[in-house]
Amino acid sequence: MERRAAVGTAKGLFLIDGDGQRGPFFPGERVPAIAMATDGRVVAASVSEHWGPTLRLSGDFGETWTEHDERSIAFPPGLTWTDHWSGETKPAAVTQVWQLALAPGGDIWAGTEPAALFRSTDGGKTFDLVMGLWDHPHRDQWFPGGGGLALHTILFDPRDEQRMHVAISAGGVYRTDDDGETWVARNKGVAGAVGPDEDTEFGQCVHKVDRDAGDPDVLYLQNHGGLYRSDDRGDTWVSIAEGVPSDFGFPMVTHRHRPGTAFVIPLDHDLGRIVPEGRCRVYRTADRGASWEPLTAGLPQDGAFMTVLRDAFCADTGDPMALWFGTRSGHVYHSEDEGEHWRCAAELLPDVLCVRAVAT
Amino acid sequence: MPVSVRLPTILGDHAGGARTLELEGGTIGDVLRALDDRFPAVGRRVLDEQGRIRRHVHVYVGDERVRSLTEATPSGTEVTIMAAISGGMGLAAAPPQAGRSAVTTQTAAPRPT
């Protein structure tokens, strides 16, 4: 079995596999979103600070890339959105793709900033804005997080291709049961982060959501403060934050094969955003969040002041499953035994923004 | 009205290697839209999908930097497209708040034991 990872950084994309490390591809461009499949397809979204966003496609695990001349992910003319930081209503233009997801049926989905969902049915040449979400009456009240108003999570339901969850900072979790036509906020029980109302229907600053390997109704959520589980497709959420040193963090990764198992990397708090006590620890639950255990072997346990962003932690497709995560200080760590032991797979990279991996 | 448009190398690579293009247009907006029509991989790097010049792209008509798409481009005008000198600035970077000191005193957190 060969394991491959694609690492999106603030200064290009790197590949790590059995042949070592290669890159950067797209040097100088931020790469905040990658999707990768076991058949060799890779989709990567990059942003040049000067020349804007670009979507690139590969059919050979990222060794070679193509891009279409025309804009691929773009808002239709005339649409606007309100930036609540500045109070301005602005023309809607994609500043960054935050999430790419390859659907089982072959479609490619993209989550963007400003927060919107796009779908491609032609392999990534063109994308259509999902109007059902764009026209949602809550949208004008979504408030940008510090990173921007972003749709950063797309989750498919393996039993039902009409159902999907997305997560928005700071809008919360939304679910469609009719292939994107209509959407309902699904945040009951998740603490609000952007206002005084603790029981708000939407507006939560959800950082990441992932789906259980055994029961697709079960979801795990890392909030901007708070860890939660839903057993009913997001209708209600319960706290599962007992046993971690901090309930602040960005990623949430579920086991690809084992039900009830998920991984997080706690950070100290909102104003610090580094691993607590200078110790880099991955926490694993094997009982649906009832308890958490730290995984530290091979990770720095003294003087480590690292940050791991929401998409910089992932599980690959292998069985046994490997875990990968990258830090804003340019390290990539890799575990082939589900987190029991880690090794540094790369260091001195630029700021790691996302990691995606497969096993073939 | 024919206008000469000079591209930086990185954009010329998306225009068949050309460094200078001859385009038509009575305003800079017309010229940039003509650029987008002819070389969309260049056009989308200069204009966003709502037709605005990207924030960190400089467009000169002669020696004058312009942001307005209605700027006239008489026949024979030279248009130059450049990257702004802003490579170290993140897109989300914000200027310091007015009225506040840019310098604050901080001490290092104690090393954990």
Task: Put the structure in a nutshell.
Chain A has one helix spanning 131-134; strands at residues 3-9, 12-17, 20-25, 30-36, 42-48, 52-58, 80-83, 88-91, 96-102, 108-113, 116-120, 128-129, 150-157, 160-169, 172-176, 184-185, 206-211, 219-223, 227-230, 238-239, 248-249, 253-254, 262-264, 266-267, 282-285, 293-295, 313-315, 323-326, 332-335, 343-346, 352-359.
Features:
heterodimer; A: 360 residues; 4-stranded antiparallel sheet; 1 helix; 1% helix; globular; B: 3 helices; 5 strands
Can you describe this structure?
- The complex is a heterodimer of chains A (360) and B (113).
- Chain A is mainly β and 360 residues long.
- Helix content of chain A is 1%, strand content 41%.
- Chain A has a four-stranded antiparallel beta sheet, with no helix packed on it. A four-stranded antiparallel beta sheet of chain A has the order 9-10-11-12.
- In chain A, a hairpin with a 7-residue loop joins strand 17 (206-211) and strand 18 (219-223).
- Chain A is globular.
- Chain B has 113 residues and is of the alpha+beta class.
- Chain B contains three helices and five strands; from the N terminus they run βαβααβββ.
- In chain B, strands 2-1-5-3-4 form a five-stranded mixed beta sheet, with helices on one face.
- In chain B, strand 3 and strand 4 (64-66) form a beta hairpin.
- In chain B, helix 2 (28-38) crosses helix 3 (40-46).
- Chain B is globular and about 30 Å long.
- At the A-B interface, loops of A face helix 3 of B.
